[in-house]
Design a protein that fits this description.
It contains five helices and ten strands, in the order H-E-E-H-E-E-E-H-E-E-E-E-E-H-H. With 222 residues, the protein is of the alpha+beta class. It is globular.
Length: 222
């Protein structure tokens, strides 16, 4: 990315031991069902996710692609490279009425702090993300629990893609995120009307009026 102003030569060494322990709280039945009802996961275009300033390629896509049952796993993990900032572009395969963004990070200073959201843009870099007014700014907590961050639904009711700009963290040189998800309502891009139109076009009986108009036009042309 040409707009990436970070010097990525200073990649951070990381070995997360505090996040690798087993979680004894497991999957609570009271939290699993409500989340799954509105979880946007299969509708994410995983192959076209882009992340700027990630220390390892495709980790941004992998933490989104990580399924709900694995959301507490320490791996894969997204870590920033040259500094604490991250910029993610997440496209959807249709239209999303976004309700909230779900984030799992950690209790240490590598947890993301300020999240800025920009819907329906594919031209952002760190410079423009810093200069432009986001549709919404969200302050995150320093916790390893899943954070369900509501968005202003009137501003995200017709979302084709979402840019997430992690502006800073709680003081660490690198930001680490273990899982990223979305909740909302999904509408597929419906191509069925076009297919029906083609089927009708192949049937001459459905085009008597059109043929008549064509005959009149040809007589006038003569």
């Amino acid at each position: 990315m040409s707009g990436l102003h970070h010097d990525c030569s200073s990649a951070h060494q990381h070995g997360e031991s505090n996040e690798g322990h087993s979680h004894d709280h497991g999957d609570h039945s009271d939290e699993v069902q409500p989340a799954l009802q509105t979880l946007i996961w299969k509708q994410v275009d995983f192959e076209n996710i882009r992340t700027l300033n990630e220390s390892e390629s495709d980790m941004g896509a992998k933490i989104v692609e990580k399924p709900w049952p694995q959301r507490l796993n320490a791996e894969p993990m997204l870590e920033s490279d040259a500094d604490e900032q991250l910029l993610m572009f997440v496209p959807f395969t249709g239209v999303v009425k976004l309700h909230s963004v779900l984030v799992r990070s950690s209790e240490d200073s590598s947890a993301p702090k300020t999240l800025k959201l920009f819907p329906n843009r594919d031209d952002l870099d760190f410079s423009s993300a810093s200069d432009l007014q986001p549709s919404q700014t969200i302050e995150l907590s320093q916790t390893s629990a899943i954070q369900d961050l509501p968005v202003k639904r009137t501003l995200f009711g017709n979302t084709y893609n979402l840019n997430l700009f992690i502006e800073d963290n709680f003081g660490d040189g690198a930001t680490r995120i273990y899982w990223l998800g979305f909740k909302g309502e999904f509408s597929a891009l419906n191509r069925e009307p076009v297919e029906v139109l083609y089927e009708k076009a192949a049937n001459p009986k459905d085009h008597t009026l059109i043929q008549g108009v064509g005959d009149v036009a040809s007589r006038h042309a003569i």
